[in-house]
Amino acid sequence: MDHLAIDIGGRESQICIRSAKGEIAVERRLRTTDLPKLFEQRAPSRVILETCAESFWLADAAKKARHDVKVVPTTLVKALGVGSRSTKNDRKDARVLSEASCRMELPSVHIPSMESRDRKSRLSARDSLIASRTMMINVVRGWMRTRAIRLRRSGDVVSFSERVREVCTELPDYIDRMLNTLTVLTAEIANADRELRTIAKNDPRCVTSMTVPGVGPVTAVAYKATLDSVERFPDAHRAEAYLGMTPGEYASSEKHHRTGITKAGSSRMRWLLIQAAWTARRFAKNHSMVLWATEIEKRRGVKVAIVALARKIAGILFALWRDGTTYRDPAAAQSRVAAAE
Q1: What is the 3-class SS of 294-315, one letter each residue?
Q2: 341 within domain boundaries
Q3: What is the pLDDT of residue 334?
Q4: What would the pLDDT profile of 272-322 be if each residue is shown by its tens digit?
Q5: Sign of CA dihedral 235, 241, 247, 253
Q6: What is the pTM of this model?
Q7: Is 333 exposed, middle or buried (0-12, 13-18, 19+ CB in 10 A)?
Q8: In a domain, 320, yes or no
Q9: Which domain does 191 fall in, by range?
Q10: Alpha-carbon gap, residue 57 to 39, rounded angstroms
Q11: Phi, psi (5° rounding) for residue 25?
């Protein structure tokens, strides 16, 4: 089997093809958009790609052409010698990747499904809209403070523009433009939320996830998009570690202690799990998992308890997905049994 390594570029990419014996057969530059044609023309080979924006699209094309695809993590690529001595040379980097592939079995990151990538893009677009709205609201609030103008307290972010216009009869053009833009952004965010609710409603895995207290459509869609496949993880603890929700460890010589959570993986998913934990704490106080977190809160404080509850929610979501079941509160079930007796 040949080894086809590609140093991917936005417009052009460098390829290096070696035989099974490690001899260089082909070296050339190609337009990145022409690489799928190259995959179709060659016999099944091992294709080595570095993790980047284009790598998963190319991985799909290579797999479609029956190649064995490896998308190598960026951290490992650097350890192999790509970009060594602060020197970036596409031809050299492609040679390094192909030579390493001939010598060893390179590990590959998980190649997410098209559904997972699409949902992550939807979530990122929604995050961008919300961030833009928040930034504009802060600018308007800052302008109001310079003029000692105060808003009425009742109301939420959706009614912000309306409340500003209530107390400001005359607005500068630049503030008026921002309020108009805020109205449009709020409407688009509502559309994005509506789309995510529809996706969650039509996805059985998301429906079961939303039976967990605190978990809504956005969290359910994001969780499935982040994990992509439950078979990737042998147990809930591995999934929690993948999300960066487990404690780290510092061990050196005689020193050994646990640190805070590792914060590896998706920061958006961690934030959503934390928000789900806060929501469960507020609206599901009698559920067993919240009562469990309440005991931790008495000993360690509310912040540690919320992180612990978020980690438990992540584990519960994994178990529901793996087993195809819905959430049932053990405490509530026990109460029903006791009442029946």
Answers
A1: HHHHHHHCHHHHHHHHHHHHHH
A2: no
A3: 53
A4: 999 999 999 999 999 999 999 999 999 999 999 999 999 999 999 999 999
A5: positive
A6: 0.89
A7: exposed
A8: yes
A9: 114-202
A10: 13
A11: -105, -40
